[in-house]
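Much of our argument rests on the idea that a fold can be written as discrete symbols. In the encoding step, the backbone of a single protein was reduced to a row of integers, each denoting a local shape. We regard such an encoding as a compact summary of how the chain folds. The record that follows shows the chain in one-letter code together with its fold in token form:
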Amino acid sequence: MTATPDTVHQAVRQEVTARGDALWDVARRLHADPEYAFAEHRAAALLSGELERAGFAVERGVAGMPTAFTARSGRGRPAVALLMEYDALPGLGHACGHNLIAAAGLGAALAVAAALPAEETPGSVLAVGTPAEEGGGGKAVEVEAGVFDDVDAALMFHPGVYSWARAPLTAQVQYRVAFHGRAAHPTGNPTEGVDALAGLVELFNVLAVLGRRLPEGSHVQGIVTHGGTATNIVPEYAEGLFGLRAATTAALEDLTERLRVCADGVAAATGTTAEVERATVRYEHFRDSEVLSERFAAHLARAGVPLSPPTPGVYLGSSDIGNVSTRVPAIHPFVAIMGEDGSDHTPEFAEAAASPRAREVLIAATEALACTAADVLLSGALREEAWARHRAM
């Protein structure tokens, strides 16, 4: 009998329900054993092992990262990727809920592969293990390595304090700014010194003024990483680390150029020399595939979890999913696991990521991801529309 969307969706939900306890166990195990950027060895082994036992062809160490992997069921295109994040935050554990993201991506990949009759469904399901979202940008590295080159859609969800169909995620990068001066004794030969720290402090002052006239979504935050070695020596070297964010990648490029201009101007005014160099992978702003987000939202609503558009002017940080969304149609909806008075990256959010509400969200989001993935594989019209809108962005 030929599979219809309704029968496939029903089969997907049955597969997720049957795996509910096992998926929650995976989420709890990850939560209890947090690992950090590029060192998520046990998490990667757990997730890739589950996929391998289910018959997926697993490749570990992809894109030169020991804790990255892909797992494929089927072959060729169309291809849909289910993304898994599993790094934690130092000192806070899974205070961003990546344990739930990992379990949902795992469950969705297993469910859709099991529910779709292989003889009637061309293409493949790709589960992608993506390390170091919190610092390092595993997805950005995978994009450059070609992991998503033959993929038609990339799907994931993120737990949060809002339930939003679309993710307002900004572009982000960090730059290291170093000032070089000349050491001297501040009383013995004060006129011989060129104070590098004074240059760095002045840069902070200039950026504070600049910040008052930046466009919405743009800001600069910085810390001093080196400010001298002794109070009785004029610092010959000072260094700061600056985080830049902007609503779009183009706006981030503009902000980066402004940082360079400010640093050069301060150096000229203080008699120092300045070096500006990128310190991290750049996260692109997220480009939402509206047609796929609408599918996900409709599937999630059937589980009793409605999603709304994001609140205008509210941004929820940055993610390397933005880099994926430059290459393929992608979704990154938020589903609340605690109230709007809370925040991720807090001990309270880490606790919420292992709560009964988190379990309910996990199952609902897994079903919605798997049903959306099935739609991508079964509907050429949906893929064409998603690609057309993606190319028009």
